[in-house]
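Internal QA ticket QA-208
Title: Verify multi-chain structure generation after dependency bump
Assignee: T.L.

Test input:
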Amino acid sequence: MVSLKVNLSGLELSNPIIPASGCFGYGKEYINYYDINILGSFSIKGTTKDLRFGNATPRIAESNCGMLNSVGLQNPGIDHVVEYEMKEILSYYSKPIIANISGFSIEEYEYCVKRLKGINNVGIIEVNISCPNVHDGGMSFGTSADMAAKVTKAVVKAADKPVYIKLSPNVTDIASIAKACEDAGASGICAINTLLGMRIDIKKRKPVLANITGGLSGPAIFPIALRMVYQIYEAVNIPIIGIGGISSAKDVLEMMMAGATAVQIGSMNLTDPYICKTIIDKLPDELDKLGIEDINEIIGGAHK
Amino acid sequence: MGIYAITSMKQLTYDIYEMKLSGDTTWIKAPGQFVNIKIDGLFLRRPLSVCDISENNITLIFKAVGKGTEILSSMKPLQQLDVLCDLGNGYDTDVVTEKPLLIGGGCGVPPLYYLAKILIKKGFTPNVILGFNKKDDVFYEEEFKALGCKVYVCCLDGSYGHKGYATDVLSEIDYDYVFTCGPEPMLKAVYNNCETSGQFSFEERMGCGFGACMGCTCKTRYGYKRICKEGPVLFKEEIIW
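Actual output:
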């Protein structure tokens, strides 16, 4: 029997498959498709201090092997999430979730983390310093090692859970930013968020997205995500959650060999709501074919 | 939900196609709901409103307007499609109306067909306005007539039926409630010109179609709504333009 169990800073997951923030809502939309309790965990929609509508529509554009979104962190605000969504999740998901938070100032990140204190079904706090779709903050914290370290330090101090920092790929040297987060006390790294891109409607001679630019995700970005996780693994000694374009059990193995302890599946959930279940079902066979008994054996396995 | 086989494919106009699928239809609960179709080679599914259902059969009508719908239009009977059903709220037919009026514009016409059938079953045969740009675009006039509906066809260029917009014939019709679907400028014209309450079906670019990605959210008087989940049908009273 192949073991799929992995451990993220003390949080044991039955398997390394985690739907990514923004692609899974609060999980509720998927319970008609399969029992989501089979997931290792899932990351909730990015939450800010205050309610946000997000950007104007259209917020979605297609591209080859992927898509762009410019949702812009639509969410009901951390107070509502704590008082309503987090409680509702208990009725259909029995494991700890990953609470994804975002902010426009260090104070806002701190506020969100403090509101999450003492909530038992939060396993990890995932700090998004990499949203490309908000103009007054978001990604700017993730594009400088100094700012990333400052946010990390503040959040770690205020949190009672392991803090993972979700990094932006829209930088020249992601490994140095990951290292700065580790030095500032982060328990882990999530990489990568979406890549900044755009599409133009040639009939209208206008950008497709109302926000002009958006974040590219989907299988198109998998090799980039893989390369970045590989680089981060060389630079830090904390667990990495690999994210970016994963669409099959084989991709999961590649991402783990690059250095990820667990993975998040993003936009593939939108086009195939069963994708995480399919991957979880196929993982034991894929490992078996390679003669692997414990999935932990392969973490970082591609580094000589 | 799942794999559906194409049973027939019919070209209705130069760019409008009618496709019939066989498979489980019990997922579809209301007229105005839509399905989301996976197309090989394209990342996002393509949402299409349900035109009609019968036992084990779904009728879809679409305009070949982009990459996805062009691929769909070239598909043949016996080919299979991966389809998600049970999407969107659909029209609420429990509202009190004895003289319903259906107003469809272009690709917005199809969902009104199943809606008309449901209303007729309830004992209220609707009047129907179908708006098109020109004669060559007209489809489903006879199908609505066959249900027993009085049909007003409007063509912008005057090449067939009434000359002008769908809303231009409103004053000729006795109605107490409006159900409409079509391009946004038409919906807005209906909103501004109809004298009753009604339900309006909207379109938006979607990521998932089942409420997960927040890609299609709009503002309403009752808060933010996802066009794919709490929509696509909104009540007149809640719409913010």
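Spot checks passed. The mean pLDDT of chain A is 96.
Status: verified.
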